[in-house]
Amino acid sequence: MVSTRIPAVSPQQAGLLTRIAYWYSKRRFGEVPEPFAVLANHPKLMRAAGVHETMVERASTVLPANIREIAVYRTARTVGCSWCIDFGNMLSRLSGLNTEKLRNIDDFETSPHYSDDERAAIAYAEAMTATPMTVTDEQVTDLKKRFGTQGVMELTYQIGLENSRAREYHALGITDQGFSKDSCRVPWAQD
Question: Which Gene3D superfamilies does the entry link to (predicted)?
């Protein structure tokens, strides 16, 4: 059993609002995402994060889903968050996106699997995730032509948010949970 650096809060340990959040998460995703169960150690932050994620999801309507998901996936892969990669793969599959692209993402610049718009979004995700960042004026100008100002804002926000998530989960030792497969590890299950 993989163990996080801070243990997940089981339903038996959780308060009423956290148990309701677990019920909703399990209904929506098939299992409670481990980051939620770890963040439940601070219920107010867990609720704030849940509200924020819901609002961002509802507000993200300008970019095509394939552009958003591929850029977020590349960000998770660049940071090295196995949980985010696993969950991102599931979200892409459930959105009806071609998950074969995810297997070829390291060759995005030359792979025939990617459109020019996807290549531009992936390159932007890499530039934003690099330390120090390597974003150029030319990149942003190109992205504005492709997606408009709101599209660039949405793409930038999504990549920044994924950087935050991926770094947080990686720091807490949260690893892949099996969302991209048929079975999913329960965060509080014992061996």
Answer: AhpD-like
